[in-house]
Write a structure and sequence with these properties.
globular, 6-stranded antiparallel β-sheet, 5 helices, two-stranded antiparallel ribbon, alpha+beta, binds zinc ion
Length: about 150
């Protein structure tokens, strides 16, 4: 289970200090990669596959994590019980909630909602950052900033 101490320890770190497989190119998007290392999501396309690494890898694709969430929905309708969950941001039309599918488009991003904040990997700043949900909502300009929750796989 995820803890405040764990997240605090990751704040400000570049992916090079998080991924033991050396899948750290700054031309890659590491948002799902970061989330998957924190939560140990060892399915689908992993950093081990991509880097031919020697250590067990974790998932690196937002659109592969989304369908694994037991429940998903529009962020503003998030149940009160989901005080810890995953948060996604993309254009609303990229998401089909009924079939739990997120299209593979460039503008999609994922973070961890914990303790009232969103913890995510900023590819622009190349480090783990912590933002309020309101700040995270500005990660992309409209209309690519629809937010969704997903309970943790
Ligand atoms: Zn990795």
């Amino acid at each position: 289970m995820i803890t405040q101490q764990q997240l605090d320890g990751l704040l400000g770190k570049p992916i090079a200090q998080i991924c033991p497989n050396g899948f750290i190119s700054s031309t890659e998007n590491h948002c799902a990669h970061f989330v998957a290392h924190v939560l140990d999501y060892r399915f689908g396309v992993t950093c081990q596959i991509m880097s031919h690494g020697r250590l067990p890898g974790v998932n690196i694709r937002v659109q592969e994590i989304f369908p694994r969430c037991p429940s998903v929905g529009v962020w503003s309708l998030r149940p009160a019980s989901h005080s810890t969950c995953l948060v996604f941001i993309t254009r609303a039309s990229n998401v089909n909630l009924a079939t739990k599918v997120m299209a593979n488009v460039p503008r999609k991003h994922i973070g961890i909602f914990f303790g009232g904040f969103v913890w995510h990997y900023s590819n622009r700043q190349q480090k783990v950052v912590r933002q309020s949900p309101g700040e995270f909502a500005q990660h992309y300009p409209s209309p690519d900033n629809a937010m969704f929750y997903g309970s943790m796989p």
